[in-house]
Every structure is written in C-alpha cells, then in structure tokens.
Task: inverse folding
C-alpha cells in the first residue's frame, strides 16, 4: 500500500462495520448465499467422493478386512444372543408400561439429509447440511447417521441449508454414559450404576469425557452413548474410550474419546426433529 | 496474477477443503481456505487491490459457510494491520521475513476470528 495506509485501513474497517450493522439490523441476517442447485450439486459430489474414498480405503486394507471379517463372524453370534435378550426385554418393558399406565417412549420425526461441506475454521467445524427451514429443520435438532451414531446438533438454520455443531467442536457438550462398564458405590450393596459424565468436543483430539471420578471403572474401548438426560434422545452412539489418564492427585480421570463419526461416512445423515 | 484466476483458485481451494479432503481422504481438520486468504494478502503485499479481493473472497466464504457477516472479513483486515505493524518495524523484504510475517498474520487471523465470532 503506497498512499496513506492507515487512512485506507480505517475506511475499509468502517465500511465493513457498517455492512455488519446493516446485515444485523436492516437485512436481519438474510445475506446468505443459498443456491438450491449449488447445494444439491455439492451434496452429490460429497457423497460420490466419500463413496470413492471408502472403496479405495477398502481395497488398500484388503488383508486387514479379511481378518476383521472372521472376527465379525464370531461377534455376530454374540449379537444374535444380545438381540434375543433385547427382544425379550422390549416385550417385558412394553407389558410393564401398559400395566403401569405409562405412555410409550417418544418417537421423534426424522428428516433425511446430506452433508455437503466439512472443514475446520476458526469458528469451529463448518459442517453444512443440505436441508433448512423449508424442510422443517430447527435449531437444536440432533443429527445422526443411519447407524445411530451422533454427528452433532443443528446450530444455525438458513432457508435451504443449515450449520451443524459437530461432535468434535469445542462448543459441543452432551451427557454420556458408558455401556459395559459398571461402578459400585462405597457400601457395595447398592445396585451398580453406569459410569456417566459430560462429553465435550476437542477438535483434533476427538472428545473428552469430564467428571469421571477416580473410583469409576472405565477402560479403553468402552462404548459411550447418550443418556437422554439433556436435549438429545437417549442411546445414540457417541464413540469409544480411546485413552484413560489416571492421576491420583486429581479428583477426576482424564478420559479421551474417539468419536464414532471418525470411522463412518457422513454424506447421508438423518435429522431428528426435537420440536 | 490475474484476479479472476485467484477467484477460480479460491473456489478450487474451498472445494478441496470442504469436499475432497473430508469426503475422499477422511481429513476433516483442513483449514486451507484461511491459509489461501493470508497467502493472497501477502502476495499483493497488502495493497488496496489485495484487501478488496481478500474482503470479497472472505465474504463469499462467510455466506457459503453460513457464518455471521464479518466473521472472516474483520480478522482479514486485522491481520493486514498486523502486517503493517511488522513492516513498520522490520521492513519486510526477504523471503524468510515474509514467511514469518505470514505465520504471524495467520495466527492473528485465527485468534481474532474466534474473538469476532463470539462478539457477533
């Protein structure tokens, strides 16, 4: 800049601040780029690129997949056994609800959507969904994959697209509990309760589970699900325990979580309408 | 460099950043777009043309990402301000100093963007 850079800088700054003021108070945040065709095109490209990437990854890991396949065949038997138990419990639960006159659990309406952009910016992850106000999406709705894995929640809704607060975003928080781990209270006689805490996003580190006391039993590869005690539906898969740091001088354990969304495709997702 | 070529490059970087990296390679922590903006400012040595083009591209990114207006433009101007300050004290001419000032501009951009988004 050759001529009076300070003057020019001040002029630009005033122009930008005026534009921000106009956008906030005159246009009411309506200055948003939202071409439906463009969003659909990028959403299509995202899904196709993800499919291609997934296929290439599978080819590259062929040997590992073969051994994983054998392990999965063994695990399938355990899953069948669990499924039978769940069926039995569901029937029992349904019967008990009827006899106790408790209404059946809530069924949330679902909207089918697609992610068309995902990158990191200073404001967090830019995770964009190709559905907006027009499709009945509202702020606070939960976003999950078809496998029931939590992707995040709707942060901001525009006319035909919306921003998702990604699970790894530092602003994201959810109450979570560990399945398969139990902890016993001091008297030992009371029934065991699942280890629970608040999971929060930590960008590249994935997530952290806060408020897990030193006495709680939690180990690597334990699976975390939502408790349903906050604004999220229960039993959504959040991730698995990646690392547990035990420090006797601290009240709480430092638990790092590997979000389950790291290992799944995000091109197609479901939005659970919470309102 | 032709400014239209820069616009095309910017769009390519945005699609690389938001579509190709996360979808094809599973890399979701890319911030290439922000780096591109800072490098472009440096390339124009923070001239009026560079600032106007940078402002327009930041505005485009804001609208596309659904961010508040100013969440990227204001940090861009502030990082340009940081370059002026550095240039005043160190007279940046060599390539090493240019890279160093680019890193400082990037940090200023990133940190002020977090601050601005909280204010907005």
Result:
């Amino acid at each position: 800049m050759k001529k009076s850079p300070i003057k020019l800088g001040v002029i630009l700054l005033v122009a930008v601040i005026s534009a921000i003021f106009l956008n906030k108070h005159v246009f009411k945040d309506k200055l948003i780029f939202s071409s439906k065709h463009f969003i659909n095109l990028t959403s299509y490209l995202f899904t196709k690129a993800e499919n291609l990437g997934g296929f290439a990854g599978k080819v590259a890991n062929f040997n590992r997949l073969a051994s994983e396949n054998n392990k999965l065949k063994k695990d399938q038997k355990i899953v069948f056994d669990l499924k039978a138990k769940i069926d039995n419990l569901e029937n029992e639960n349904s019967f008990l609800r009827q006899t106790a006159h408790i209404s059946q659990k809530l069924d949330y309406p679902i909207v089918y959507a697609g992610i068309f952009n995902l990158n990191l910016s200073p404001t967090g992850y830019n995770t964009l969904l190709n559905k907006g106000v027009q499709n009945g999406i509202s702020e606070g709705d939960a976003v999950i994959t078809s496998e029931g894995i939590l992707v995040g929640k709707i942060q901001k809704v525009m006319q035909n697209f919306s921003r998702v607060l990604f699970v790894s975003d530092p602003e994201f928080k959810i109450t979570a509990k560990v399945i398969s781990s139990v902890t016993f209270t001091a008297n030992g006689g009371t029934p065991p309760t699942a280890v629970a805490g608040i999971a929060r996003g930590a960008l590249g580190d994935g997530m952290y589970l806060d408020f897990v006391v030193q006495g709680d039993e939690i180990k690597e590869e334990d699976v975390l699900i939502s408790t349903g005690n906050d604004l999220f539906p229960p039993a959504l898969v959040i991730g698995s325990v990646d690392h547990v740091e035990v420090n006797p001088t601290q009240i709480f354990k430092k638990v790092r979580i590997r979000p389950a969304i790291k290992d799944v495709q995000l091109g197609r997702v479901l939005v659970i309408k919470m309102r | 460099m032709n400014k239209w070529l820069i616009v095309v490059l910017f769009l390519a970087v945005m699609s690389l950043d938001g579509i190709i990296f996360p979808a094809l390679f599973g890399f979701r922590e890319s911030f290439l777009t922000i780096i591109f903006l800072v490098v472009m400012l440096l390339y124009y040595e923070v001239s009026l043309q560079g600032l106007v083009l940078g402002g327009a591209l930041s505005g485009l990114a804001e609208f596309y990402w659904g961010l508040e207006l100013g969440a990227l433009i204001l940090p861009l101007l502030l990082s340009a301000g940081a370059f002026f300050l550095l240039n005043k004290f160190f007279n940046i001419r060599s390539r090493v100093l240019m890279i160093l000032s680019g890193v400082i501009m990037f940090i200023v951009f990133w940190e002020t963007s977090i601050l601005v988004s909280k204010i907005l």
